[in-house]
Amino acid sequence: MTRRDLEHSRANDLLHQLTHGVYAGTGLPQEPEAEPVHALLQGLTESTSRVVSFETAGRLWGLIPGEVGAPLHISSPAGGPRVQRPHLVVGHRITVPGQFVLELGGIRVTSPAWTWLDLALEGPTGPKGPRGGEVERAVILGDQVVRRPRGEYGETGGQLASIAELREVVRARGRTRGIRGVREALGLIREGVDSPQESRLRYFMHLAGLPEPLVNPVIRHPSGYPWFEPDLAITAFRVAIQYEGEKFHSTPHSVRKDVRRSEIAEQLGWIEVRITADHMADQGRRAIQRIQRALIHQGWRPETPTTHR
């Protein structure tokens, strides 16, 4: 569009300015609250090689909680100009291959798998240094992106990405800072994990050298009837692990359900270990101690070669 065309469109209320150098058509459908941000993201990426990325893409895909808002993260091809608007847009220079760019509501955005990698690589450092923090963050986000919505929770939709797709974006990214930790995380990501805290607990168990638990397995009575479904389970030693989030386990109904589940586990010869947020500090030290005690009671020893995948 020439400057003359631009001035004509603005004079006739065909365009309105979103920010310096970015305009949108006034005919766009208006939606409360979300419309200004939606229009701005469209204006920043439409008919360009730019793409919404990092935290902004993470919020659009639901990987990061909260509303989409400033600062907005926009990636431009490496070697080209980077869009930058103080307090409004954070620009990144990185070439995103076309197969990892999707359109979401008219906005060009990095695919869920590529978004996972962006977020994992830029994550905060963990208690064991940058690499430890990258691995933990990559596992937590990876579990989220490969999780399939559960109908029993009233969830709809499909899996955002498969583990195979995560491997593909790691191969495509090549050598870059932090990629070794992300490659390590790839071997720890599992489908079916229902919360970030359960992902953290699984990762802490891995660091402690405990047997890998199954995720949401159905534990059956010897007759074959399904009796209970723990969050995590080490079936070889009959140890069930429940992460008790306050939101879902504090109502009278949920308390009765939890007590009944514990009774069933005991009848079947299982030990149930219940973990809360209070146990998760210091790389889950108290949680790991509780799980270790249960395992030892059930016959496990640190040298016991048991791995579940």
UniProtKB/TrEMBL annotation:
Domain of life assignment: Bacteria
Protein name: DUF559 domain-containing protein
Originating organism: Nesterenkonia jeotgali
